[in-house]
């Protein structure tokens, strides 16, 4: 038709179509004299729904591709009913016209365009339409989307199934991904080269929109690159976390475990149970980079942190145990100081996101499932196999804080390094665990308390011989020593560790279970049970970062311990059913301080005489009860008393 004929046609139809619709509406609205007529009306409607019967101003189209209103102009794929026909809304709805375009219609439009263009790029008009449809599909009103493939444009404007596309949320890797991967190391270069070959989402589509429609995050692809999609549970990244509904339980545990130096005791205790001989506490005051992270939400945890190192590796059993709150696994191990498996959770006084490196793995916990990618209530954390991988190059800001104590984030780590980023005012206000921040001043106070009792911490521990404290003031700087306490035994000391060896079965072909220990105890001659008597020296040295100068304190102690030696009645009590149920052990000891000396470190290094030496009588101690580490209970005796006491769950009270 020429322009004048088309105009005449439109004018004619503008008069005719309302008349036609009015007649149809009247016919369908008339009372049906019998059921047969009513069935005929429905049959007529059904037939019309499959025909082009909806006027859209330029012709008739099927009801399935129409809507009464739409914020988008989607012709010639989807149409909006002419404004002058909106008064027939009831009839149009009966014919199948929607109020608004639904998700399935918009998804089908994208699919039609993908098949129509095959792998060819969209023209500018089609691309503009697709981008508007994509934005609309990602809006809350269209969530959840139908379970079908969604097509998105890539950087070349070709339509591709969304899950085959990546969106680039790693701007710090842009240069490498654009072709500069030669600058990276061998494996990193291979991974970046592979990533650079993956098709990308069109840059006009926001990352959040792309993620909602099924595209993959490049961050998560790098993290879970051994899987087709980022499904936790793959080879190098797997779901990992504490297995219970955590936040309320952990909140209750924090009420039970008071804040203070006792939290550091728990970490020393866990290290001792693991067989570590050295424990270091590092107050990391640095603000680390916050761009190249596993998730943008992790930015809040890149500030000051308490880091704790010990020189023992986690075993697979340790990894399982730390995920369980109140596990009785330690109860089954006779040589473990920890009795309830609750102590580690006291670190939630400090943080919402504790983490640690040991062996080949880096583990994060996120009990509230708020910060880690892929964390859920059922799997609130990540276990990442970093050894032999290139995560440090791909996520340098995330992993740089762990470059401490010999950890290089490439080789398997021969030790364990915890990181507890401190809760600040902002994160505390949103925390589901604890609403109080943990200030740097509070952390310094904690280190002061640790210093004041450092010498006496080491008296009864089975394995730990050295405790150190450091401060790191800037990112990338070496930690500076504040103080270190180190225990040594006098030359010629015998039987050190004899009790722990007997309980664990070492040297006799036995096992470390409590049941196996009771079998050995039942058969033993109580006169031959192990006895230890040691003269110990504990050196407390101050480092260059200490405000206390370079003073060295030396304390000489006599420590005697026995495992039921000559105490038949006590052994029999432990072997009774009730004693076995409570896991009682006839292990006790005392520590008497013999002398204290102080000198500058320069004279100590030169082996010169002490500046001041005091006998035990001139510096009496306030005797405390120990369960291998000091308890709050005072005994009133001039010596410290150690025993395998039955304690309350938070290790603060002795059951009588």
Task: Write up what this structure looks like.
It is a single chain. The protein is of the alpha+beta class and 656 residues long. 32% of the residues lie in helices and 20% in strands. Helix 4 (103-117) packs antiparallel against helix 5 (124-137) and helix 6 (174-180) packs across helix 7 (186-196). The radius of gyration is 36 Å and the shape is elongated. It contains 23 helices and 24 strands. The strands form five sheets. The chain has a 16-stranded mixed beta sheet that branches. A two-stranded antiparallel sheet has the order 1-2. A two-stranded parallel ribbon has the order 3-4. The model is unreliable at 226-235 and 328-332 (pLDDT under 50).
Characterize the main sheet. 16 strands, mixed
Broad shape? elongated
Termini separation comes to 103 Å
Structural class: alpha+beta
The rounded Rg comes to: 36 Å
* Uncertain spans: 226-235, 328-332
What proportion strand?
A: 15-25%
Q: Summarize model confidence as the mean pLDDT.
A: 84
Please count the beta strands (DSSP E, at least 2 residues each). Answer: 24
| Contiguous helical run count | 23
- What is the helical fraction, as a range of percent? 25-40%
């Amino acid at each position: 038709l020429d322009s004048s004929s088309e105009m005449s046609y439109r004018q004619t139809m503008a008069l005719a179509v309302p008349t036609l619709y009015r007649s149809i509406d009247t016919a369908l609205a008339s009372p049906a004299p019998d059921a047969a007529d009513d069935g005929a009306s429905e049959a007529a409607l059904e037939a019309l729904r499959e025909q082009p019967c909806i006027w859209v101003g330029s012709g008739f189209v099927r009801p399935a591709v129409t809507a009464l209103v739409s914020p988008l102009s989607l012709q010639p794929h989807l149409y909006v009913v002419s404004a002058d026909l909106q008064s027939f809304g009831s009839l149009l709805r009966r014919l199948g016209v929607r109020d608004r375009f639904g998700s399935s219609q918009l998804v089908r439009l994208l699919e039609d365009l993908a098949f129509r263009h095959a792998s060819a790029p969209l023209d500018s008009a089609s691309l503009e339409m697709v981008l508007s449809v994509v934005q609309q599909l990602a809006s809350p009103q269209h969530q959840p989307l139908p379970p079908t493939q969604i097509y998105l444009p890539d950087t070349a404007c070709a339509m591709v199934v969304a899950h085959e596309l990546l969106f680039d949320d790693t701007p710090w890797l842009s240069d490498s991904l654009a072709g500069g991967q030669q600058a990276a190391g061998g494996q990193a270069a291979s991974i970046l080269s592979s990533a650079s070959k993956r098709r990308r989402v069109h840059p006009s589509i926001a990352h959040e929109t792309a993620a909602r429609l099924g595209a993959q995050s490049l961050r998560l692809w790098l993290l879970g690159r051994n899987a087709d999609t980022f499904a936790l549970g793959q080879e190098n990244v797997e779901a990992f976390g504490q297995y219970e509904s955590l936040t309320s339980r952990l909140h209750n545990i924090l009420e039970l475990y008071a804040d203070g130096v006792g939290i550091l005791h728990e970490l020393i205790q866990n290290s001792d149970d693991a067989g570590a001989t050295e424990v270091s506490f590092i107050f990391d005051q640095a603000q680390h980079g916050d761009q190249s992270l596993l998730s943008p939400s992790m930015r809040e945890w890149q500030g000051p942190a308490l880091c704790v190192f010990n020189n023992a590796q986690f075993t697979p059993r340790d990894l399982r145990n730390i995920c369980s709150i109140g596990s009785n696994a330690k109860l089954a191990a006779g040589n473990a100081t920890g009795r309830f498996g609750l102590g580690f959770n006291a670190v939630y006084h400090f943080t919402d996101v504790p983490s640690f490196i040991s062996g080949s793995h880096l583990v994060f916990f996120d009990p509230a499932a708020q910060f880690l990618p892929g964390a859920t209530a059922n799997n609130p954390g990540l276990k990442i196999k970093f050894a032999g991988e290139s995560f440090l190059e791909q996520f340098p800001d995330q992993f740089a804080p762990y470059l401490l104590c010999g950890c290089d984030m490439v080789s398997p780590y021969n030790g364990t390094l915890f990181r507890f980023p401190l809760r600040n005012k902002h994160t505390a206000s949103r925390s589901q665990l604890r609403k109080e921040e943990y200030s740097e001043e509070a952390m310094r106070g904690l280190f002061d308390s640790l210093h004041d009792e450092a010498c006496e911490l080491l008296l009864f521990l089975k394995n730990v011989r050295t405790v150190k404290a450091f401060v790191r003031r800037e990112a990338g700087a070496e930690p500076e020593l504040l103080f270190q306490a180190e225990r040594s035994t006098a030359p010629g000391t015998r039987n050190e560790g004899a009790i722990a060896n007997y309980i664990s079965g070492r040297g006799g072909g036995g096992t470390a279970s409590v049941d196996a220990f009771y079998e050995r105890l039942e058969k033993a001659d109580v006169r031959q049970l192990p006895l230890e008597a040691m003269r110990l020296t504990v050196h407390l040295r101050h480092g260059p970062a200490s405000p206390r100068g370079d003073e060295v304190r030396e304390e000489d102690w006599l420590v005697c311990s026995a495992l039921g030696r000559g105490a038949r009645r006590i052994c029999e009590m432990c072997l009774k059913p009730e004693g076995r149920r409570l896991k009682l052990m006839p292990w006790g000891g005392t520590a008497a301080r013999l002398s204290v000396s102080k000198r500058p470190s320069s004279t100590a290094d030169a082996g010169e005489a002490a500046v001041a030496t005091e006998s035990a009588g001139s510096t009496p101690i306030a005797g405390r009860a120990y369960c291998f580490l000091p308890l709050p209970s005072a005994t009133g005796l001039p010596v410290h008393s150690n025993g395998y006491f039955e304690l309350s769950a938070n290790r603060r009270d002795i059951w009588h």
